[in-house]
Write a structure and sequence with these properties.
single chain, 481 residues, alpha+beta, four-stranded antiparallel sheet, disordered N terminus
């Protein structure tokens, strides 16, 4: 009987909550259940934005930033939610992606900006992302994710994993990485066509960019395209749908001429950093180099590495261990070690101080006991180089720790100052716009620029063309330099 009363009480609370949380969708006009008001939605975006920018870093290009802001504001004004204070930003990532978070914050990676081949392609994707905002897809998906996680909380608390020691993704990044269902993606495609048509662009061009995404994904085996893009409709379906919608909106808006602006866009992105930026760190011959911070360390053989402005993470394919490198806050290593011991309730096995290739260092070996009798062992090296301190931490279950200890020590003991001039001076590739002097195929044009066969397909995708495509004299193409 008490259980029944509790159930009824929660049911009544739920019914009241549903009544006050059903709002009308700005796009469809239908009522739907959401877990936050528009004010809360905007606040969530404002709180997420600094976290997203810290994770990716801002790409500094004032002219290109001014362009996306101008077009974004023009498109927002004709959207279903024109009163939001939209912000449009370019983030410093080579991944081909664009995303939006609640409240009107829209982000483009420099990677996607490099792969657009005209303004109309950009405008279609811009409209697609604004569509996610206007249709409140992030808010709805967050509701679905939250409801789906309620049953897992107890298990996570009772069985801590190695991830407890790793900096979790912030709320902002979790929002940025939300995946939407195919229905939401189709709706955003429709809105992308509508919004880009309303500001005078040829919306058919958006379908061409979907083909670029598909080709890039096939060439990379999916590794360069975020997994959440797999929820998007197929390019073939999108091409047909977008073409039909574009024709409908041209007729509805009485558009006699629409804009594509290929040359203007290509000129605008000349000089854009293309691909990985070695200034932010790169791996070569199993060594990680960071030219800006001037350090290097070996990467364990066959381990995966993920580099971001906040940390470097490495792990074997088995996932049984993790090795991270982050900036350390402060230079009192004894105090930092004590704080870590207290925070994670660790049993200290040893603490020692020794120089690491001439750099001041403190080493901590500790273990966290689990309720089931197992444990997690961690080895931490705090290292100071000049005015900057670093924390290198290796983690594994206690039973497997000896398997990975040598890999941890190899990386930590070989952390050193980077002095090699060729690594310190490594520069990224940047886009150069070439005007063809004669009629030729794309393949021949690329070979004339000195590119080897193993890069031809990559550059064909970059230009949104086939290698055997015939190009007339005066055509502009993109090449990295």
């Amino acid at each position: 009987m008490p259980h029944l009363l509790i159930f009824v009480r929660f049911l009544l609370i739920g019914l009241v909550f549903i009544q006050i949380s059903c709002v009308r969708n700005p796009v469809t006009g239908k009522k739907q259940l959401v877990l936050m008001s528009e004010k809360q939605e905007i606040q969530m975006g404002k709180e997420s934005d600094p976290e997203i920018m810290a994770y990716f870093g801002r790409y500094e290009d004032p002219d290109l930033q001014a362009f996306i802001t101008e077009k974004g504001e023009e498109m927002a004004a004709v959207s279903h939610r024109p009163n939001l204070a939209y912000e449009f930003k370019i983030v410093d990532s080579p991944v081909i992606n664009a995303f939006a978070v609640p409240g009107g914050f829209v982000y483009f990676t420099r990677g996607i900006m490099a792969h657009f081949n005209n303004e109309a392609e950009f405008a279609g994707v811009l409209g697609h992302e604004i569509g996610h905002v206007t249709a409140r897809h992030s808010v709805i998906q967050q509701r679905n994710n939250l409801l789906g996680q309620l049953g897992m909380i107890a298990g996570v608390v009772l069985v801590p994993q190695l991830s407890e020691f790793i900096e979790p993704l912030s709320q902002g990044m979790q929002l940025a990485l939300l995946s939407f269902g195919r229905d939401a993606e189709r709706q955003s495609d429709e809105l992308g066509v509508e919004y880009s048509s309303r500001i005078g662009y040829d919306a058919v061009e958006m379908a061409g960019f979907f083909e670029t995404l598909e080709r890039k994904q096939e060439k990379a085996g999916g590794s360069e395209i975020p997994e959440f893009l797999s929820t998007h409709p197929s390019p073939a379906e999108r091409n047909q749908t977008v073409a039909q919608l574009a024709a409908t909106w041209k007729e509805k808006l009485n558009l006699e001429a629409t804009e594509v602006n290929r040359e203007a866009y290509l000129r605008r992105i000349e000089g854009l950093v293309y691909g990985e930026d070695p200034r932010q760190g790169f791996v070569e011959n199993s060594v990680f180099y960071h030219p800006e911070l001037k350090f290097r360390f070996p990467v364990p053989g066959d381990w995966n590495l993920q580099n971001s402005p906040q940390q470097v993470q490495m792990a074997p394919k088995s996932g049984e261990a993790v090795l991270t490198m982050t900036l350390a806050s402060g230079n009192n290593f004894r105090e930092m070690a004590e704080q870590m011991v207290e925070q994670y309730k660790l049993d200290v096995l040893s603490v020692s101080e020794e120089k690491v290739n001439g750099l001041t260092s403190l080493q901590l070996l500790a273990e966290q006991k689990q309720e089931n009798g197992s444990g997690i062992r961690l080895l931490v090296y705090f290292i100071q180089q000049g005015d900057v301190s670093y924390q290198l931490m290796g983690l594994a279950q206690s039973a497997n720790y000896t398997t990975y200890e040598s890999a941890f020590l190899s990386t930590m003991k070989n952390f050193r100052e980077l002095k090699e001039a060729d690594k310190l001076n490594r520069q990224p590739e940047r886009l150069r716009i070439v005007t063809l002097s004669r009629s030729t195929s794309l393949e021949q044009a690329l070979k004339a620029q000195g590119f080897s066969d193993d890069r031809l397909e990559e550059l064909a995708i970059l230009n949104g063309m086939d290698l055997n495509e015939s190009l007339s004299a005066g055509t502009l193409i993109k090449v990295p330099k």
